[in-house]
Design a protein that fits this description.
The chain crosses the membrane at residues 24-46. Pfam families: FixH (PF05751). InterPro entries: FixH, FixH_proteobacterial. It comes from Methylocapsa palsarum. The structure is a single chain. By secondary structure, the protein is an alpha+beta fold. It has a domain at 80-172: Immunoglobulin-like. Helices cover 29% and strands 35% of the residues. It contains 2 helices and 7 strands; from the N terminus they run ααβββββββ. It has helices at residues 21-49, 58-78, and strands at 81-88, 94-101, 112-118, 127-135, 138-143, 148-158, 161-172. The protein has a 7-stranded antiparallel beta sheet with strand order 1-2-5-4-3-6-7. The termini are far apart.
Length: 173
């Protein structure tokens, strides 16, 4: 058996570079710099695209909760029937019709109607329209609205006081 020896043809043999404290510090700073930079970019994109908030102040919403329960009980005692119809006309405008009747199937006088279309994921797309009274108990209005799923909020008011509120998920044609 023969042995072969390999010699380097370069005049300087490869020398290992020692691992110094400066190199370790540079590697640590580089590593954490990349991690922090990536986190900052992700935080920026997350907060600039969707705030993730359902209400501006959870504390105020919590305090108002008791009033909302009382208003809901008062609304139930009225026994009103409120129907909404939405359709898109030939120009692409969304037409909204609200019909209101009390427990004896008679319309209630002195009401005003406000309809709000709330986008489920982006409050900046919310749209509202005050409806005009076409006949006793019948309110109509029109607005420009993109097709898709929306939360339809109906407010019927008398003298500035909300008498009836309804929130339903609808599909805008």
């Amino acid at each position: 058996m023969s042995s072969v020896s390999i010699k380097s043809s370069s005049p300087h043999p490869l020398q290992e570079r020692p691992l110094t404290g400066r190199k370790v510090l540079a590697m640590l700073i580089g590593f954490f710099g990349v991690v922090i930079g990536a986190n900052m970019a992700l935080i920026h994109y997350a907060t600039s695209t969707f705030a993730g908030l359902e209400s501006d102040s959870a504390y105020s919403a919590g305090i108002a909760y008791g009033r909302e329960i009382k208003a809901s009980h008062a609304q139930d005692k009225l026994h009103w029937k409120v129907d909404a119809a939405i359709r898109r006309d030939s120009s692409g405008t969304l037409e909204v019709t609200i019909k209101q009747a009390d427990e004896s199937a008679s319309p209630t006088d002195g009401l005003s109607a406000l309809v709000q279309f709330e986008h489920p994921a982006n409050r900046s797309r919310d749209r509202s329209v005050a409806l005009a009274q076409a006949a006793p108990g019948i309110f109509t209005g029109a607005l420009d609205l993109d097709p898709g799923r929306w939360d339809l909020v109906i407010d019927l008011r008398r003298n500035g006081e909300t008498m009836f509120r309804s929130k339903n998920r609808v599909e805008a044609p």
